[in-house]
Amino acid sequence: MRSPVPETRPGQETKPALGRKELLEQMVRLRYVGHLFEASAQLRLVPFSWSGQGLEAVVVGAVSALEEREIVHADPRTHAVALVREMPVEECVRQLLSPHRETHSVGKLEYEALFPPISPSPRPPGLWQWPRGRVAPMTSELGHRVHQALGSAWAAKNEGDQHRAALCFLGPSELERPEALDCLQRAARLRAPLVVVAMDSPQNLSTWAKLLDGAGIATGRADEEAVVELAITARALLNEARRRLAPAVLLAPRKPGAEPVEMLLGQMRSDKLLDGPGWEALRGRARQEVGDAVKRVLGPGRALPLLVKLDRLAGASLFYSS
Predict the structure, then answer these.
(1) 143-163: per-residue pLDDT in tens?
(2) Is 12 a member of any domain?
(3) Which domain CATH number covers 271?
(4) Residue 26 domain-assigned?
């Protein structure tokens, strides 16, 4: 029988380890780095962009629930998980703007140059590699990430740490493939604590939930822009997976046009937890951190056009209206 984790609401479980202000601060940093990726693509410093805008809540909420020893596997849209695992912004910028990165004229080859598939042949490094933070290198091959995450959970059992979970993000393209459900069923047979964050439309996730229900796999649900609920639900699912040595899935449906940073900011304004000056100080710290990192990596002269473009992009999306 399926052992579901009930949908949670703030107040039903203990609050996440990070408070709302800390969660917002991490989300704003991710937004700035996402805009940096977008600005770099517009200036042709990188071949194209996955900025991850709109996914800040699901990244921060889910990853903040992990224990330090647990591994996270990102997909191209959630690449910034390394920042949540304490990767310095300068290292992130250095990896993004590395002059040694291989690029090609064909879209698929550009994709593979940025996010190398599993292959014995030499490949340029993937973005946001951070072994110290237990962030696994990404692969461009659809279906491979969930296999990697299952391997991480299974390896932990073989190393004698059977309650160490592995977290994996899957978007619509991978959820459509049979490997995702197959890996979860295999994790159940192997008694491996694999937790998948499934990101798709509410309609598609409802269909997927029925498949998971039929397979006896525990699920939890929290809207993709609601970072506090995501953190609470992710923590409950991870605890369930560790306790039962079984897979679990966090269903994170996204509402069209949802902006998680703005949503959390609005909640904190309503609760009088953040005013205009406080928001400007928080945003200013993220801007300064990213700007200083770009200047150190590129030098002040080369950094200027990129920082001007970054300010325009961030200024259009990160603002506080009284």
Answers:
(1) 677 888 888 888 887 777 778
(2) no
(3) 3.40.50.970
(4) yes
